[in-house]
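Hi D.,

Good news: the full-assembly prediction came through. Inputs first.
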Amino acid sequence: MSEQTPQRSAYDAIVVGAGPNGLAAGITLARAGLSVLVLEGSETPGGGARSAELTLPGFIHDPCAAVHPFGKASPFFRSLPLAEHGLKWIQPEVPLAHPLDGGQAVLVERDFEAMVTALGTDGAAYRRALSFWIEHWEELFADLVGPLPLPPRHPFAIARVALQSFLPAEILARGLFRNASTQVLFAGMAGHSMLPLNRPLTGAFGLMLSMLSHVIGWPIVEGGTQGLTNALVSYYRSLGGELVTGCWVRSLAELPDARVVLFDTPPRTVLSIAGDWLPEGYRRQLGRFRYGQGVFKIDYALDGPIPWENPGCTRTATLHLSGSLEELAVSEKAVWSGRHPERPYVLLSQPTVWDPTRAPQGKHTAWAYCHTPAGSTVDMTGAIEAQIERFAPGFRQRILVRHTRNSLEMEAYNPNYVQGDINSGVQDLFQFFTRPTFSLTPYRMARKGLYFCGSSTPPGGGVHGMCGYYAAQTVLKDFERLPKSLHMKNN
Ligand SMILES: Cc1cc2nc3c(=O)[nH]c(=O)nc-3n(C[C@H](O)[C@H](O)[C@H](O)COP(=O)(O)OP(=O)(O)OC[C@H]3O[C@@H](n4cnc5c(N)ncnc54)[C@H](O)[C@@H]3O)c2cc1C
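Then the structure:
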């Protein structure tokens, strides 16, 4: 049943925003027996985890997240009965491909030993770099998506990889691998950091995503990412949780009474909704929170599959497009300095090769984006399509319709993406430990009863729900000591 107005006048907890983290917080609190209301501004729940017919009837697109190594690995999602609520992961044969000039491509084999063999002269170096990660992946992943800045739960495992992880990806790729193809493969993984590859910690993104390729895969969701959200919503409702959509929260005074309010939003939104409730010093700290680069996103309806020059590229749903480590590093540095690269690093997904339910028979969809300076309104269609054509000549002839969003349009679609920043805050070394402020309990605001639960908190961006889960755990620790009401109407 879909409720369009809250059913009660008072709740234990209200969550603002039904992204994966808001829903994770709602589920955790409802599972603990609290009465919970999630309020979502958009008509559809899911935030960055939604699907829609953006181009033509019958073509289902993922406007934001499409590929889910984090979602499938998430310790929180794995603890939920999501398959019983309709979630079906699809694992492409190969987690990822990186096509290269001249019809070459490097494919990430799911099996670690097969990958070592496929990398030839770089195989031994790949094994040395990743075998500890593979053997200890659950401990390492649990800490990497842990509630920083608290000390790790597996200090020995983390200590073993710490030095390597802090290194910039550019140095790590060159230091570890001799072949240009392995170097650019690693750089493509690290490019998910949305930082220049000469920055500390970018190596950790490369290592973690490489590890997840082998231990989890890079799955997609049958029918589109909305399927994951629908399963979260269905489970949340089965616990008695309420969700109201089409309800933008603009002030705390509008809300029903509650003991706690959690925000699946960045500090900027919290300041506009609850700024008057917060001490001035804390408001200033939130005002200093830094947002990162934006994105330019294209969704395509296609007349046929993408005509990759290298046929191996059809063995995957996800590809990174960039000719070399140097090209990728230059492009990410340019974006960071406020420029639009001629040859951007493009992230591409071709879900319908693996999931025919998303398009009419014989037709396909594609999802592609590149990084841009924050707030950019520059049309990157030409640059993105030139990169796709470079590795798939004839691609343009397959396009039926394209739907684009620049960084500011991305923010209009979802206000959490401040100036197009899909991670709701830069994930550099400093802000890795200070999301959204420096605190041992970053989820708790400096006012009793108010909490952050979105990706501006640790562990940051991605569809994994861990921010919401840890925020809700903090609420549960505090709950008995909190006043019976926030008295929001009388502030
Ligand atoms: C183009 C693109 C590609 C991406 N690709 C991937 C990918 O492949 N894999 C991956 O793991 N991640 C990907 N991401 C990132 C991922 O989508 C986000 O990190 C994730 O959705 C963050 O979850 P969240 O719950 O913190 O916030 P969100 O998903 O942004 O949800 C926040 C929700 O709060 C609502 N809201 C905000 N303000 C208010 C208000 N005032 N009142 C009521 N509701 C409000 C919003 O409408 C939204 O529904 C991608 C993002 C983009 C944009």
